[in-house]
Amino acid sequence: MTRFIALLRGVNVGGITVTSAELAELFRGLGFDDVRTVLASGNVRFDVLPSEAGAEDTAALKRRIESALRERFGYEAWIVLVSSEQLAAIVEGFPFDAKREGWHPYVLFSSASEPLEELLAAAPMLDDDDVIEQGEGVIYWHNRRAVGVGSAFSKLSGKARYRSSTTNRNLRTLCKLLD
Fold it and tell me: Which CATH number fits domain 93-178: 3.10.20.30, 3.40.50.300, 3.30.70.1260, 3.30.460.10?
């Protein structure tokens, strides 16, 4: 078995409602085992049989899931798909004090390198409310809780041009996906 984590972008916001039960049902219907959703923000952990994982590369698996989401829920579905091993390495690599009082520990994911490169290039313009660092295919982000979505990096990464290619998760959510 190969365990994967699908991080859905843009569900349960902007009029796109997908319940955890419906999401789990869709993934089971695709033939995946041990399907588990975490929180109501589009996080799915699932297992793929070795024969299926070998016959289908990660990019093809991603496309198949996105197609099923589009068909079932009627929205332009976009996901980040990582193996549990990749996610464990990302979580382990978090470079900041995740328990620092008054700060949120986040990881920004993208399936393409260009958005991450653009966001990293803007780093020198950030103020003291955000600290970011490049990771393997991610941006690690520490955000001052008192400022939250009003911070410079939050506003930058939330721009429309990044919405179809990036998704952000709290480190605690990622740890739950690994449990």
Answer: 3.30.70.1260
From CA 62, how far away is CA 54, in angstroms rounded? Answer: 14
E strand map for the chain: 2-8, 33-37, 43-48, 79-83, 103-110, 130-134, 138-144, 166-170
Query: What is the CATH architecture of 2-86?
Result: 2-Layer Sandwich (3.30)
| Opening angle at CA 148, ends 143 and 150, nearest 5 | 115
User: What's residue 125's pLDDT?
Assistant: 78
Mean pLDDT calculated for residue range 115-128? 86
Q: Are 133 and 139 in contact (CB under 8 A)?
A: yes
Over pLDDT 90: what percentage of the chain?
63
Query: Residue 53 — very low, low, confident or very high, per pLDDT cuts 50/70/90?
Result: low
Residue 121 is which amino acid?
A: A
* SS3 state of residue 148: helix
Give strand pairing partners of 108. 139, 168
